[in-house]
Amino acid sequence: MPTLEHPREDQREEDEAVDRLADRTWAVVRRIHLGTRKPANWIQLVKFGTVGGSGYAINLAVFALLAGALDAHHLLAAVGAFCVAVSSNFYWNRHWTFAAGSGRTGFQAPRFFAVSIVGLAINLVLLEALVSAGVPELLSQAIAVALSMPVNFVGNKLWTFGAQAS
């Protein structure tokens, strides 16, 4: 029978798992905090925003074509628009924003795509919520893409094109 002096083994393992997760979370938060103090990171963020802006325009144009002209369902149109925009974004972020063109494409591309899928999932949830709330589809997509951008930047900066990805 567990006592206060000798907690159950499974509780101890659960506590250790929570501690490991907290340590990893704080390490990421610390890395982001320290990164905000470096001017080069702000320049990189502006480049990422520029690439993102072109991807945003591509995404919205393809979305408008698919949802508007071709009358596709808004979620299918969002996925199609994502597929076109993510290809352009990978190329420009790899070669210009993060200058990681010498890194292994076969290593970076799956990571970029994984980060982008997380961003897409956030986008789709927000898109559906906004459309369900009566916001026009194109405006909903514009808002959803903008709100999912920070996840993409941090994920690509720290994981896809970070030092370990070269």
Beta percentage is: under 5%
Helical percentage: over 70%
By DSSP, the count of extended strands is 0
The SSE order reads: HHHHH
Mean pLDDT: 87
Helix/strand/pairing class, anyone? Answer: mainly alpha
Shape: globular
What's the total helix number? Answer: 5
Q: Please give the domain count.
A: 2
Distance linking N and C termini:
52 Å
The value of Rg in angstroms is: 20 Å
Main pleated sheet: none
Which regions are unreliable across 5 or more consecutive residues at pLDDT < 50? none
Short overview:
The chain is an all-alpha fold and 166 residues long. The protein has helices spanning 9-35, 39-69, 74-97, 105-132, 137-160.
Task: Report on the architecture of this protein.
- With about 170 residues, the protein is mainly alpha-helical.
- It has two domains: about 1-35; about 40-165, no CATH class.
- It has helices at about 10-35, 40-70, 75-95, 105-130, 135-160.
- Helix 2 (about 40-70) runs antiparallel to helix 5, helix 3 packs antiparallel against helix 4 (about 105-130) and helix 4 packs antiparallel against helix 5 (about 135-160).
Structural features:
166 residues, mainly alpha, 2 domains, globular
